[in-house]
């Protein structure tokens, strides 16, 4: 049995739509998690970060208004504080994230997802 592919998706994002198309074009019907409609918990974000092999700062969208308003560029902020900010403001999460089993990739560029297919 193969692992299910899950995409953490924002349908308004062109990269997210392109990544979803690549997955579907490969004949895979992924589980779609619209994380803006159903926000992630801190535990879920921590698990995703482990699978991605990056820290919270690397998952932040630095161009978002909430990034500036909450002074998230402050290097003294802890991993937990950055994760809490992403839980509170899901738009801060870089997208899309695609997960298969114990591995995950960011769909930036969308072709990154091909490594999981």
What do these coordinates show?
The protein is an alpha+beta fold and 117 residues long. The chain has a domain at 1-35 and 95-117: 3-Layer(aba) Sandwich (Glutaredoxin). It contains 4 helices and 4 strands, in the order E-H-E-H-H-H-E-E. The protein has a 4-stranded mixed β-sheet with strand order 2-1-3-4. A hairpin with a 2-residue loop joins strand 3 and strand 4 (103-106).
The CATH homologous superfamily of the domain at 1-35 and 95-117 is called Glutaredoxin
**Main beta-sheet annotation:** 4 strands, mixed
Q: What are the segments in which pLDDT stays under 50 over at least 5 consecutive residues? A: none
Which second-level CATH architecture of the domain at 1-35 and 95-117 applies?
3-Layer(aba) Sandwich
> What's the CATH first level of the domain at 1-35 and 95-117?
Alpha Beta
Tell me the structural class: alpha+beta
Q: Biggest sheet, strands in spatial order? A: 2-1-3-4
CA radius of gyration is 14 Å
Secondary-structure element pattern, one letter each: EHEHHHEE
Helical segment tally? 4
Proportion in helices: 25-40%
* CATH topology (fold) name of the domain at 1-35 and 95-117: Glutaredoxin
Name the average pLDDT: 96
Question: Which percent band covers the strand fraction?
Answer: 5-15%
Total DSSP E strands: 4
How far is the N terminus from the C terminus? 14 Å
Query: What overall geometry do the principal axes of the alpha carbons give?
Result: globular
């Amino acid at each position: 049995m193969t692992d299910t592919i899950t995409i953490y998706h924002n349908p308004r994002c062109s990269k997210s739509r392109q990544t979803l198309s690549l997955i579907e074009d490969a004949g895979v019907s992924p589980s779609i998690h619209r994380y803006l409609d159903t926000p992630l918990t801190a535990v879920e974000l921590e698990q995703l970060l482990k699978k991605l092999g990056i820290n919270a700062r690397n998952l932040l969208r630095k161009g978002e208004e909430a990034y500036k308003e909450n002074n998230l560029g402050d290097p003294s902020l802890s991993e937990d504080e950055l994760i809490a900010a992403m839980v509170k403001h899901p738009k801060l999460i870089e997208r899309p994230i695609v997960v298969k089993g114990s591995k995950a990739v960011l769909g930036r560029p969308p072709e990154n997802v091909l490594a999981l297919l």
